[in-house]
Amino acid sequence: MHPAFSVVFFTTATGAGYGLLALLGVLGGFQIIPPDFWLGLIGMGLALGLIIAGLLSSAGHLGRPERAWRAFSQWRSSWLSREGVASVITFVPAGLFGIGWVFFGRSGGWVTIAGLLAAIGAVVTVCTTGMIYASLKPIAQWHSRFTLPGYLFFSAMTGSVLLNALLQGFAIGSKTLLAASVLLGLLGWGWKVTTWRYNDRLEIPTNANSATGLAGGTVRSLEWPHTEENYLLKEMGFRIARKHSARLRQITQALAFALPVLLLAAAFALPWPFAAMLSVLAAIAQFAGMLVERWLFFAEAKHTVTLYYGR
Amino acid sequence: MTCLPSQSGKKLGLVIDLDTCVGCQACVTACKEWNTGGHMAPLTDIDPYGGQVDGVWFNRVHSYEHTTEMGGRTVNFPRSCLHCETPACVTVCPTGASYKRASDGIVLIDEDKCIGCKLCSWACPYGAREFDTDVGVMKKCTLCVDRIYNDNLAEEDRVPACVAACPTSARHFGDLGDPASAVSQLVAERGGVDLMPELGYHPTNKYLPPRAHAKRAASVAAPALEPVRAEGGFLGWVDRMLSN
Questions:
Q1: What pLDDT was estimated at residue A242?
Q2: Could you tell me which residues come within 8 angstroms of residue B39 by beta carbon, excluding any fewer than 6 positions away?
Q3: Which positions in chain B touch A87 (Cβ < 8 Å)?
Q4: Chain B nearest C-alpha distance from A304 (Å)
Q5: CB A170 within 8 A of CB A184
Q6: Based on CB atoms within 10 Å of each CB, which residue in A191, A274, A308, B24 is the most buried?
Q7: Is-contact B22 B168, C-beta < 8 A?
Q8: Any stretches that span the bilayer, and where are they (chain A) (predicted)?
């Protein structure tokens, strides 16, 4: 599948943004993170900024963005529509929580309820994003049990690393959150490696025989219907050389998982401001690494239409 | 509404005979010609006379070499929308632009509602939908909905343009929901198949596999001519005179 940057950035940014929003909603709502104007403003600004930037980026991917409002109508059948509805609804409790927690400096009561609802909305939205991909049967690498948990794990991982960087920056970092970020980093790493291993061994039942209805023997493409690449090949026939794939997987593992885990482990032992600097560095490295991971998620996915072209 | 309708029983579609298709591309050009002025018009061409030709087509004919123990053969394979019974391209649509008609099962796009998110083309395993980068919306085969019900056309012309154009009658149009229809009987007789049945889209269109090779070799040479026997009598005399 063609890795369009707008969609790669969209899923990565909203994943991190919703992860951070969910953590702020729960931890802020229950006063585990005390209300603080600047911390709250930057934290909620970062979470909602990532979400809004991601959603705008995804709208840029549309052929007719001016009609995007229509996408809220088909939530009964379409995961993309459900994602649109969930993302917009989540802004309501997130906004209320932001006003109460940041501007009124309150937690408890309606602010807690709004924070919890924002967290639930964030998790639901990430699930709908994952299901858009997991529900597509023609793409075996996506239509698997690894896709939805992957989106949830990576959202939690990037969100917690961002929150840790934020709290460390304000010198109120907690060892528990550091430990949680390291553990989520290791979980995400393990999940990604397992997913790759599963995809590499995937035996897809659909082949050129079933695609053409020609039973038995071999079916070899003699001639395409057209001389140049068409929409199908540009959008769904994207291929990546095995050697580049291997190198990009190494880069993903280094930037998204290994480096952040090492930096955060080092931050355990170091005093402020060094721990804060390492935490911020870990968040930046991880975001860059997750962009590579998401690019590969698209580039390595193979659509059944390529069978008609002998690919 | 992108929820699928409860079926009325009528399932209009095509039956494509891979035995007789000669790959002449007449259906491809007839489709383009009709539909670039039809329901989903225009079928935009980008840089049509340049080096990077691209454009929207509803019907594309591939050629394959099918090799089995019985030997190899060339199979020409027209590929277009199969108007599936459970089309994921319809249910994934977030706007309601994609829909399946309850009355006859045709899958269509309302171009005025399409936002061009391309998700329907990802959900179609057959590559039936093509994005028009110029208009910014998705396009697909309409089963010539503007021909088959068109009272301005003579009755024999009320078939999809690809079917009307086929010089070898490799394309058949009819109601596959009616077991007594000519197309249903053809499918039953020739063992018509679904494409990618394992994905569970339940395509309406059926493909007739090429007929089996004949077990005996085809007789190539005509029987040897027998020598003309010498005749007696008057005809023998004529023969001898003419042979001199």
A1: 83
A2: B108, B142, B145, B146
A3: none
A4: 5
A5: no
A6: A308
A7: yes
A8: 7-32, 38-63, 84-104, 110-134, 146-166, 172-191, 251-268, 274-292
- Residues of chain A with C-beta less than 8 angstroms from the C-beta of B199: 137-138, 206, 304
pTM for this predicted structure: 0.91
Average predicted confidence (pLDDT) for chain B? 92
Closest Cβ opposite residue B115 in set A68, A208, A228: A68
What's the pLDDT tens digit per position in A167-215? 999 999 899 999 999 999 999 999 999 999 999 999 888 999 999 999 9
CB contact under 8 A, B119 and A132: yes
The DSSP bridge partners found for residue B137 are B132
Q: How high is the pLDDT of residue A54?
A: 97
B3: chain A residues, CB-CB within 8 Å: 74, 76-77
Selected residues 188-217 of chain A with any CB under 8 Å from a CB in chain B: 205-206, 208, 210-217
For residue B81, pLDDT beyond 70: yes
Interface test with B, best of A55, A58, A66, A70 (most B CBs within 10 A): A70
pLDDT in tens, B116-162: 999 999 999 999 999 999 999 999 999 999 999 999 999 999 999 99
The answer to whether the peptide bond before residue B94 is cis (omega within 30 degrees of 0) is no
Rounded to the nearest 5°, which phi and psi values hold at B184?
Answer: -65, -40
Per-residue pLDDT, B227 = 63
- Among residues A154, A108, A94, A107, which one has the least CA distance to residue A127? A154
Report d(CA A130, CA A119) in Å as an integer. 17
Residue A211 Cα, gap to closest chain B Cα (Å): 5
| Distance (Å) of CA A35 to CA A22, A30, A117, B125 | 16, 10, 18, 51
- Least Cα distance to A61 among A111, A11, A104 occurs for A11
Any idea which architecture A5-309 has in CATH? Answer: Up-down Bundle (1.20)
Q: Where do the domains of chain B lie, and which CATH numbers do they carry? A: 12-208 (3.30.70.20)
Q: Cβ of A221 under 8 Å from any chain B Cβ?
A: yes
* pLDDT tens per residue across span A78-95: 999 999 999 999 999 999
Mean pLDDT taken over chain A: 96
- What tens digit of pLDDT does each residue of A236-257 get? 999 888 889 999 999 999 999 9
Identify the CA nearest to A58 among candidates A294, A309, A279, A303: A294
